[in-house]
Each structure stands twice: as C-alpha cells, then as structure tokens.
Inverse folding.
C-alpha cells in the first residue's frame, strides 16, 4: 500500500486510501460480524450458569480431584464381595462412576481461595492384608500432609503438628459377618517420635494394653499402636465378635509386618513402668516448662505414696543436658526458691518451689528428668531419689 | 501497488477511499467493537458468577424459617434412651412436626455425614435419628424427603458407612449426592463468607429444610453441632476457612434460615473430634434438642451435652452478637420433657 501526499484545494493535503482488495474488505466484515456474534453468544450462554462452560479457575480443581481416586475407595466395591456380603451388593456406585462434587466445586470455589493447590498424594504400595476371613472392600487410599484434610477434615492440623507425612488406608469386609468391615489407617510420620507424639495425644485412657505392640492399646472397637514412624489405627465397624476378631488379627498382622524403629524414643524407654498411669504418657517436642532447651520430652504421671506425680525425662548429649539443667535451675530461681540437694548415684538434683508447686529435677550424664508441679516436696524428692538409685524401674 | 496522483486534482482512483470515508469506516468499526463488548458485558454479568469477580453476586438462600410463635416453644429438650421416642417427644414439645411440615412439602434433611465412620463412633448423624425424623416428616404430610450432604470424603462411602444409605433405601428417601452440576455460586455478606460455591441442587426442590446434626467435639472449633453442620453445603476448597473457623461457622447462622434444627445428643463424641475413632470418646447423653434457633440449640448442646463452658465457644458469641440467634437459651421459650 502506498500513497502520495500533495497539496489539494485550500492547501489541504490530499489523502487517498489506496486500493482495498476485496479479500480485505470481506475479512473485515467477517471479523466484525464474528465479534458481534461472539458477544451475543456469551450474553445468551451467560444467562444460565454452567460450571462446565465457565470453569474459570480450572487449576483449582486439582485440590480435590486428585484425591477423588483415593476417596472413591471408601465406597464399597461394586464388583466386590456381594456374594459374601449383602451390604456390598446394596452399596451405591462408587464415586469414580458417579462424578463427585469436588471437581467442579473446586473450580467454582476460588473466590476466596487464595491458597496453593495441595499436591496430590503419591500412590504407594496398596495396603494388602492376606488373612483368612477378610477381603478388601475398597481400593487403598493415599493422602499426604497437604491433602489429609480430605480424609479427616478438621482433625488434620493435629496430625500436621506432629509432622505427619501421609496416610494410607483401606477397608476390609469381614466375610463371616454380613455388612461388617474393618478400617485400617496407617499414618506415617517424619520420625518414630512424631508418631508416638500423635499416638499418645489420642490415647484412650480406658484402653487395654496390647501384648503384641509396645504402648499399644485396644479400645472397644479397635486397636491402636505405633510401630516405627507409623501410627496404626484398626477400627471395627461394630462390636460383633467376628468383626472384633478380624480387627485383632489385622492388628497383630500389622504389628509383625511393620518394621520396628524406636529412634528418638530413648526417653520413653527410660520412663519407669512401676506406678505409671499408662494413658498419661505423652510426648512434647519442644518448649517444655517454658524452656527452649527442653526438647523431645516424654512425660507420664505416676502413683506414688498415695499421690499423683507428673514426671518427665529427656535424653540429650551430656553437655546439653547439663546446660538445660542449669538453665532451668536459674529460671526457677527467678520465680521461686531453689535448693541444691545432695547428689544421688551420679545425679545432680535441685528442688524448687515455684508458684506454690514443687519441682525436683536431676541430671545424670545425658539424662535430664524429674518431677514437676507436685503438691508436696517430700514425695517428689523421694520419687526422684528412688529412681536414681534404681529402686523404681 | 502503485497508482497515479495528479497534482492539483481532487479526482481519486475509483477503488480508493477518501480520508473522510476512511475515518467514517474506522469510526463505525470502533463503535461496533465497543458496542459488542458492552452488550456482552451487560447481558452476561447480571446472571453470571465468576469466582474472584466480587461485584458479581450469586444466589441468596431464602428463609425456610417458620413464623415466630409467642405461644409455642422455640426450643425443646427431650431425654430418653430411644432415638425415635426421644425425637418424637422433642417434636411434640415444639408443637408437633405439623407445625413445621405441611401436606405436599418437599423436605430437605441435612445430616452430618462428613466421614466414613460407623454410626457407633458418633462422628456422623445416626441412622436411627434420620429414620425418626423422616418418618415424622412423612406423617406430617411431606411428599418427599431429600437427604443431602457434601462430605469432604467420598460421598458414597460416607453415606454407606454411616448407615444413612440403608435408611434412605428402606424409607424411600431421595438421597442426593453432590455431582458435577450440583453447585451454584452463593452470595452472602458474612464476616468471612462472601461468594462461594454452594451445594444448591437440593434447595431447588425443597420447601422445608431440617438440619440434623450429631453433637461432637471438634479439634479446631471446639464443637460441631447444628450451626457447624451447614459447613457441609459448601463446595470447593472449604478447608481454607479453617483459619477463620469461628467466623465462618457464625456466618452459617446468616446463610441458613432452616425450618428446624435437631441436635442428636443421644451419644456424644466428647473427644478426638471431629473424626473420633474410639468408643471411649463417646458418651451416652440420651438427649435430643430441637428448635428453630440454631444458636440456642447449640448453646444448650455445648453446655449440657459436651459439658463445657459456653464462654469459650467463640462462634456462638459471634452469631449472638450479630443478632443471628440467642446464646442464652434459657431466655427463649423452651420446654424440657422426658420420652
């Protein structure tokens, strides 16, 4: 395209749009018509909200769609064990066949959704249990720390506080009890100590001890224990003898198959068993008694001379234990009275009365422990001294 | 391409356009483009919702609340050991289900089926409670009873394991799972809840809405009762609201104006909620609380069923302060009965 500009009448510069090809004219008209048509089409379609068309934030779908595959697993298998289990036969189709909410809901739900999309859990080995009398009721579900809420919702933060890494779970039909099933949950944590911490937090005070898993217990409808970095929950659907027997068999099988690992649990093993109130055992990862130096502390309550004494133990490098002991002594001195007691069997001891409560704290090599918040100094001191002498085991 | 121009001549080639013509065409094209855009915008926005475009409003739920009675109680507390008898007693104390449900009503019952837990663990609405309430609805003349919830876990698994699928099948209830097109944008002037996706399909048919919730401990907000139960109607990544859990739960008292709420305190999940997992977490309290004011119902539940100090339940105070209910349940017209 070219043009020449020359003076026209009245000194106006002549402008001449040179030849406009027919193709260009037609294209222009088509573009304008298309634009108008698109505008009208959007207007008409937009009158009726349809998430399939207007899924603007499709990426936010990932938050829940990724888990749908696993979530579907909680529904009884349609093709599963209907012959053995009438309940399965009546079960609705699984979510995989019937699209569930999460997909489109997430797409629509981004108005206030500024958070990052949780990563889907990586599928691991399916949870297989080869025991007579049980059959898988569903696929194995996998969750990671980020999407754990999709399985346990508001309970997830409690697990995240103890560095949960993931959850693998599956349901199993009890062949001999129609409609009954057992849920198996394997929460995997960063370390055995973390697993123990969460396990202890949820401990059933009425639970009976298990002979096949240290610290484990059975409730009226389930079995709960920690093995290595895994916190295992075996939950029966009811209290039928067949269901409970299946749950127990699964629990025993699991305790045998999961590798034992008590790393970081030396403090737990040092807690004496005599007089211990089993359900009171807990693990506090940091800042015990307001002390930054008190980390990975195990606590339990003991019945002693008619009193209930809170007791704690921490295992660290000898230097760290000594520094923590001294630091705690100084801390107590700022808020109360402190007295050094005679050494017992290589252990340094001080007692302190702070805000009306007694603390008797010892340090021996890399072990730091003692009684805290006792109402009576005599009992607290006697307990610590007996422990150091090896009279309480 | 070339052409000739003759100096001093106004004659133009036949296939060329003048400056005037060019400007006119340009103007027309611009007007068409702008007009198309404006027309599309005008036609599209009023009826459409796109998350993130806050000026655009979604649906607002209508109120299903009954007329306020100065004679009949708004809160009923019934004690008993049998679900059906106790629920019947509570409803009788309120004036009967006929006060709330009339002939031909389509009743939507919103249970709490958040988890795939067995009924004994009290983490979900008990099947016996659903059966009793549905039966009362039919007796009052309901033409249909819809049961709907949007569990964060697999809906089919949750309904099945909680025992509600069996009840729905037995009583011919319309069990409504959330599906791809079940959601619509909700618009609310809540403290936290503004625009969000909402499980709307059941509400298209329902003429009455009943919330039927278990009474249970909750790790994040202390308790999950009838107000928290509406959380299950939200879609999307609703766990984001956990950071403002008390605000969002108090917003539900603004979002939902149900016909009735029923708090099942026959067996209460006292600890390790909302999932539970141990029978030792469950305590039989043998109580049903029903009423039209969910805040009053929950206030009773928190103090007398979970046996905790009402002062710590922030979301009830927030709702009370916003005039969305009465936390002082004793100030309401209430009746306590034994089944």
């Amino acid at each position: 395209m070219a043009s020449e500009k020359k003076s026209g009448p009245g000194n106006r510069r002549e402008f001449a749009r040179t030849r406009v090809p027919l193709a260009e004219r037609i294209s222009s008209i088509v573009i304008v018509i298309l634009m108008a048509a698109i505008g009208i089409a959007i207007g008409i379609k937009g009158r009726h909200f349809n998430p399939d068309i207007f899924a603007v934030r499709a990426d936010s779908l990932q938050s829940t769609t990724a888990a749908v595959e696993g979530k579907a697993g909680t529904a009884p298998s349609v093709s599963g064990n209907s012959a053995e289990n009438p309940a399965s036969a009546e079960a609705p189709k699984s979510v995989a066949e019937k699209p569930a909410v999460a997909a489109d809901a997430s797409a629509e739900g981004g108005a206030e959704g500024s958070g990052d999309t949780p990563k889907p859990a990586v599928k691991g080995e399916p949870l297989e249990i080869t025991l007579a009398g049980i059959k898988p009721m569903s696929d194995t579900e996998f969750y990671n720390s980020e999407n754990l809420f999709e399985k346990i919702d508001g309970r997830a933060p409690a697990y995240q506080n103890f560095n949960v890494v993931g959850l693998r779970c599956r349901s199993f039909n009890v062949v001999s009890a129609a409609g009954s099933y057992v849920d198996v949950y394997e929460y995997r944590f960063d370390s055995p100590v973390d697993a123990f911490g969460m396990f202890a937090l949820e401990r059933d005070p009425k639970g009976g001890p298990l002979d096949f898993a240290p610290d484990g217990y059975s409730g009226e409808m389930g079995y709960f224990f920690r093995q290595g970095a895994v916190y295992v929950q075996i939950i029966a659907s009811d209290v039928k003898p067949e269901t409970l027997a299946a749950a127990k068999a699964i629990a025993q099988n699991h305790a045998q198959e999961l590798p034992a690992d008590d790393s970081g649990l030396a403090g737990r093993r040092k807690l004496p068993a005599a007089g211990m109130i089993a359900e009171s055992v807990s693990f506090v990862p940091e800042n015990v008694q307001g002390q930054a130096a008190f980390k990975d502390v195990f606590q339990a309550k003991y019945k002693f001379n008619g009193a209930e004494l809170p007791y704690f133990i921490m295992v660290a490098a000898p230097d760290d234990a000594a520094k923590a002991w001294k630091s705690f002594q100084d801390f107590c001195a700022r808020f109360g009275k402190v007295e050094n007691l005679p050494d017992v069997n290589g252990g340094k001891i001080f007692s302190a009365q702070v805000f009306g409560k007694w603390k008797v704290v010892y340090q021996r090599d890399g072990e730091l422990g003692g009684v805290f918040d006792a109402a009576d100094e005599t009992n607290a001191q006697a307990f610590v001294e007996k422990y150091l002498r090896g009279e309480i085991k | 391409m070339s052409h000739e121009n003759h100096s001093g001549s106004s004659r133009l080639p036949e296939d060329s356009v003048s400056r005037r013509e060019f400007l006119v065409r340009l103007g027309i094209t611009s007007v068409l483009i702008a007009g198309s855009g404006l027309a599309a915008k005008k036609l599209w926005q009023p009826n459409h919702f796109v998350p993130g475009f806050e000026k655009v409003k979604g649906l607002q739920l209508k109120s299903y609340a009954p007329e306020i009675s100065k004679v009949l109680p708004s809160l009923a507390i019934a004690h008993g050991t049998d679900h059906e008898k106790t629920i019947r007693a509570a409803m009788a104390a309120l004036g009967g289900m006929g006060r709330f449900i009339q002939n031909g009503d389509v009743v939507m019952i919103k249970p709490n089926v958040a988890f795939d837990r067995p009924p004994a663990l009290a983490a979900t609405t008990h099947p016996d409670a659903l059966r009793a309430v549905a039966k009362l609805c039919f007796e009052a003349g309901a033409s249909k009873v819809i049961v709907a919830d949007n569990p964060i876990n697999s809906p089919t698994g949750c309904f099945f394991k909680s025992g509600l699928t069996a009840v729905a099948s037995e009583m011919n209830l319309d069990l409504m799972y959330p599906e791809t097109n079940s959601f619509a944008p909700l618009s609310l002037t809540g403290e936290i809840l503004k625009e969000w996706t909402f499980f709307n399909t059941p509400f298209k048919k329902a003429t009455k809405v009943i919330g039927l919730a278990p009474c249970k401990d909750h790790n994040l907000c202390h308790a999950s009762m009838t107000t928290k139960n509406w959380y299950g109607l939200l879609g999307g990544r609703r766990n984001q609201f956990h950071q403002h859990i008390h605000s969002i739960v108090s917003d539900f008292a603004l979002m939902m104006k149900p016909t009735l709420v029923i708090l099942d305190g026959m067996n209460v999940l006292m600890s390790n909620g909302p999932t539970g997992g141990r029978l030792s977490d469950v305590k039989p309290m043998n109580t049903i609380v029903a009423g039209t004011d969910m805040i009053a119902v929950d206030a009773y539940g928190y103090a007398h069923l979970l046996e905790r100090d009402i002062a710590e339940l922030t979301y009830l105070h927030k709702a009370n302060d916003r005039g969305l209910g009465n936390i002082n349940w004793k100030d309401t017209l209430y009746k306590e009965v034994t089944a």
In short: Chain A touches chain B through 101 residues (CB under 8 Å). Chain A has a mean pLDDT of 79. The two ends of chain A are 101 Å apart (CA to CA).
